[in-house]
Design a protein that fits this description.
By secondary structure, the chain is α+β, with helices and mostly antiparallel strands. Helix content is 46%, strand content 13%. The strands form seven sheets. Strands 2, 3, 6, 7, 12, 18 and 19 form a seven-stranded mixed beta sheet that branches. A five-stranded antiparallel beta sheet has the order 14-13-23-22-21, with helices on both faces. It has a three-stranded antiparallel beta sheet with strand order 1-10-11.
């Protein structure tokens, strides 16, 4: 029995052993087969092949005008890429040297979106905001590990995530100290760019080692390479910079840095050059065997066939900034290569235009080149957008603006006859302008021009924007521009500055420089950048800004074009009729004796418009007439109270000239792209504006040793919040300003209650400020000083409140001055609403969105009424007659000279809107504004044209005429086949 059991166990054991031996034998044999017999073959195959995914950009959707003209499309381009592999990295410097030579020989440009620039060393980012520049600079340094390095030096092995806010601020402060030049030389070391001269070094060292007996060539090579490896990095950098200039070194650095930054997100070829010429692409294709890692691929690139046409509407595309990185990566964008819409329609409809990326699974060899496609997902183009814009009308609007501005610049202080302007205006700085054309019956924008413009093609391909253009757009040299501006405008001879110069010289201030004084006034050093001593700001909006949409963003006083609204209010409220006659008596001071408002005839010639009705007053732009209308409205509303001061505003809001600040209406015209939305003078908004103005005056007031004979002597005090203040001091100054402004705006507060409020609330904070600020504390303020400072504040608050309730605010508003500020877009829609019977439409640029097959996806063509004014037809007709007289009456029509021979009957209104009370000392001139509509009987379009420093609406009216000519060209030719167009059949 036992023997049987043992025999059975033995048999099972032997079977198990045999099976295990067989399994292990099979494994061993397989390993021998794989590693010995086929090992070399598989190694070669592994070295030669790799699988990867390549993403393919989708063509962006097209943008076209109302008639189907393509304004933004795509074309195929050749891109040169470098794929890092073990083999291509081994020959990196040799390969890149050949690549750069070929690019240069064929006039191609290396892609350079690297923020580090040279000559001089600096960090440049595609942002204009000072805070954004600082954020991007820190992000750039952090991405390259400088924050880790600083953290280890300051806090040892403590992780960045473990640091508190104060410790992180210390790191940021240290990051700010790292100069671009230091980064340049540090990256040379980090990326071993000195290996560019490694073989030169080896060749020279060989001569030395060859004199040593007994060393083979292989031993010499090893010794030299070992010596190079252990050579001090500073010596290596010196060898590199002795042979190559910074520009050449930077070319290699750009590729190395891009490879490093992209390595964090997997396999991505580095783009060396975009949009190669076909001839150049063919050269690289032919030389691929000599250039490891180098390939040419096709990609769609954005193309704008009409270049700068409607650039303010279409916008442009740009590379994703570091600031936007996380937001767009979450949406599936590749920050290293994807572009996004940056403004205009491109920006607003990015998600619709972008399309869906494609993918290609490919097999590559050891040189990084594609062998075959393993699978592919085709990219799907974005949807197309049809605009309401008429490209031909847009072209004429832009051309007319450009030509009219050039003419005004050329004429300067002279008229068309070469005579000096009697009113002293000088239009030589007429460098910016806008024009808007609206279909009055739908709200569709037919043309929207902002000048100067820009060519969005410059931004569609990396490297196309040259250094000069980049700086002009994003980093203008305002110091240089300012000096040239002062010289051109001869501002050093302006009486105000000559008087200042004489006073300084009389004081013995021999170092006083009048040009520097004016420069610092017009283009002051930016105070919101800590420690800044060179970056200036355009305080008075003088420098032309191509990326600023003057049509939708510039808030300007409407000047006399607002008189149409004053007429509407007067007629509707019954304070005048169409037959009411008002006598122009010169200064309008019947209620406020210190008010100096008057008609232009009185100001220029001490003349009078005589007795006029509303139609005649619109025709001649008679200020006195509209002051009287405003006063009658003021009285009807109850005088110095909210109702009395809102008598114009309640009508202006109906026409989209602002909104009720106490209501819920959205401040918008409805346009799809970015806009500002201006506000008409009203009691609430007026208080806010005047409070800020008086607060600024108070800052200066308190900075003097005495305020007035009512207050007496006190030590000056600085309560202006500044970025150079400590946080505690800054917060206290802000609190003081906030308390004072709140009291300025407070209604129904007696003088005694006001003074008590200031003593109880402002005085304690003022004392705390003096105690906290070492500068103020050292002055030694007495109780008497504090008391007198509070008294000065009290008088300023009282003055502000008095000014806020004066009827003069309404007078100024009635002629389009004061605090009235609107965009050209608002003004155009105001006129459209006025002449179409009182329907205020939502204005829009997009007519519809279509798929690639032409099927409509979303239809926006149906008009949307925002509100109906309810203004009577008789009022509208009366105001229209006044506008007709402006263009057709030879007895004073302010636009008659422009339209007297025009075959399409139309109406309009000129405006001269003051920029600043002392604008000539700034080299500025009044805005030239013109609004109009046509045809007269059945209006179809409304226009608004503005030229900055254009002086008079009559000077800019020719732009409106050119627009009418293009829009009505077929009708004009039927009336007069020989009509001479300004631009038709030209260009």
């Amino acid at each position: 029995m036992n023997n049987e059991i043992n025999e059975q166990r033995f048999t099972r054991y032997k079977t198990f052993i045999v099976v295990m031996v067989a399994i292990f034998s099979a494994i061993v044999l397989r390993l021998v087969w794989l590693q010995v017999v086929k090992g070399e073959e598989f190694r070669r195959e592994a070295n030669n092949k790799s699988h990867t995914i390549v993403f393919k950009n989708a063509p962006r959707g097209e943008i076209y005008d109302r008639n189907g003209k393509i304004l933004a499309t795509n074309r195929q381009s050749f891109n040169l890429i470098y794929t890092p592999t073990k083999e291509s990295e081994k020959h990196f410097f040799e390969t890149m040297s050949k690549v750069f030579d070929i690019l240069d020989e064929n006039g191609e440009v290396q892609r350079n979106d690297f923020p580090l620039k040279i000559n001089p060393f600096r960090l440049d980012f595609n942002v204009s905001s000072k805070s954004s520049r600082l954020w991007n600079e820190r992000r750039f340094k952090k991405d390259r590990g400088y924050d880790d390095k600083i953290s280890k030096e300051l806090f040892g092995n403590k992780k960045l995530s473990e640091l508190n806010s104060e410790e992180k601020k210390r790191i940021d402060d240290e990051l700010d100290k790292i100069t671009p030049e230091e980064i340049f030389y540090d990256l040379i070391s980090k990326y071993s760019l000195y290996d560019l001269v490694k073989y030169d070094y080896i060749d020279k060292q060989k001569k030395t080692f060859q004199n040593i007996d007994g060393l083979s060539d292989a031993e010499i090579q090893r010794k030299i390479e070992s010596k190079w490896k252990h050579l001090d990095k500073k010596i290596k950098i010196k060898l590199l910079t002795d042979k190559y200039d910074s520009k050449t070194i930077l070319r290699y650095m750009i590729v190395k840095d891009k490879k490093r930054m992209q390595s964090y997100s997997g396999y991505k070829p580095v783009v060396i050059a975009n949009d190669l010429k076909e001839k150049t692409a063919f050269i690289f294709e032919q030389l691929q065997a000599e250039l490891p890692g180098i390939s040419v691929i096709k990609q769609p690139v954005r193309y704008y066939p009409y270049h700068d046409l409607a650039s303010c509407v279409i916008g442009y595309i740009k590379k994703i900034s570091l600031y936007e990185k996380e937001r767009y990566e979450e949406k599936g964008y590749d920050i290293s290569r994807d572009y996004i819409g940056a403004s205009g329609i491109e920006g607003r409809y990015e998600s619709i235009l972008r399309g869906s990326k494609g993918q290609e699974s490919i097999e590559i060899n050891k040189f990084g080149r594609k062998i075959k496609t393993l699978g592919e997902l085709t990219p799907y183009p974005g949807e197309n957008i049809k605009l309401t814009i008429d490209a031909d009308l847009q072209r004429v609007a832009e051309k007319a603006l450009d030509d009219t501005m050039k003419l005004r610049q050329k004429l300067g202080n002279r008229n068309e006859r070469g005579r000096v302007n009697q009113d002293g205006v000088d239009t030589s700085n007429a460098t910016r302008g806008a024009a808007v054309v609206i279909d009055v019956n739908t709200g569709k924008i037919l043309a929207l021009a902002s000048r100067p413009g820009y060519d969005p093609n410059l931004f569609a391909v990396p490297g196309r924007l040259n250094e000069r253009e980049y700086r002009k757009f994003f980093l203008p040299d305002l110091d240089k521009f300012g000096r040239e501006y002062i010289k051109k405008r001869n501002l050093t001879e302006y009486p105000l500055y000559k008087e200042k110069e004489e006073k300084e010289l009389a004081k013995g201030n021999k170092e006083f420089n009048i040009e520097e004084y004016i420069l610092n006034k017009l283009f002051p050093i930016a105070k919101d950048i800590k420690g800044n001593t060179s970056i200036r700001e355009d305080y008075y909006d003088i420098y032309p800004k191509p990326f600023y949409n003057y049509a939708t963003m510039s808030l300007i006083p409407p000047g006399s074009t607002f008189k149409l609204l004053t007429a509407v209010a007067g007629l509707e409220e019954g304070v005048i009729t169409k037959n009411t006659k008002i006598l122009d008596r010169g200064y309008y001071n019947k209620r406020y004796k210190d008010y100096k408002g008057a008609s232009w005839k009185w100001n220029e010639f001490r003349g009078s418009h005589g007795l006029q009705n509303v139609i005649e007053a619109i025709r001649d732009s008679n200020n006195y007439f509209f002051f009287e209308v405003a006063d009658r409205l003021f009285v009807k509303g109850g005088g110095e109270c909210k109702k009395g001061l809102d008598m114009l505003a309640k009508y202006a809001w109906k026409y989209g000239l602002g909104i009720n600040p106490l209501g819920n209406e959205k401040p918008s015209t409805g346009i799809e792209i970015g806009e500002n939305f201006g506000q008409v003078y009203n009691y609430v908004s007026g208080k806010n504006t005047l409070a800020i103005l008086y607060m600024r005056q108070l800052y200066d007031f308190l900075g003097k040793s005495s305020a007035s004979h009512w207050v007496g002597q006190y030590k000056s005090i600085d309560i202006v919040p500044s970025v150079n203040d400590s946080k505690e001091v800054y917060d206290l100054k802000k609190k003081i300003s906030k308390l004072i402004i709140s009291q300025m705006k407070a209604d129904n507060v007696s003088s005694s209650e006001q003074y008590k409020y200031l003593r109880d609330n402002v005085e304690p904070v003022l004392k705390e400020l003096i105690k906290t600020s070492s500068d103020l504390n050292s002055i030694g303020y007495t109780d008497s000083d504090i008391e007198r400072i509070i008294m000065a504040i009290n008088y300023s608050v009282t003055d502000a409140k008095t000014e806020m309730k004066r009827g003069t605010n309404l007078y100024n508003a009635s002629i389009g001055q004061g605090t009235n500020r609107f965009t050209p877009l608002q003004l155009a829609n105001y006129v459209a609403t006025l002449v179409n019977g009182g329907y205020r439409y939502k204005v829009h640029l997009v007519d519809g969105i279509y798929d690639q097959n032409g099927n409509i996806v979303k239809d926006y063509s149906k008009p949307v009424v925002l509100n109906k004014t309810g203004v009577s037809s008789s009022t509208i007709e009366t105001v229209k007659k006044g506008m007709l007289a402006v263009t057709s009456s030879s007895k004073g029509g302010t636009a008659y000279k422009v339209f007297k021979d025009f075959p399409i009957v139309n109406g309009g209104k000129t405006g001269s809107a003051t920029f600043h009370n002392d604008q000539h000392s700034l080299g500025r001139e009044a805005y030239g504004v013109y609004v109009g509509f046509a045809p007269y009987d059945k209006p179809e379009i409304a226009v608004c044209v503005v030229i900055f420093d254009g002086a008079h609406g009559g000077y800019v009216a020719p732009v409106a005429k050119a627009i009418y000519e293009e829009y009505f060209k077929d009708r004009i030719l039927k009336i007069n086949p020989n009509y001479k167009f300004m631009y038709h059949d030209k260009d």
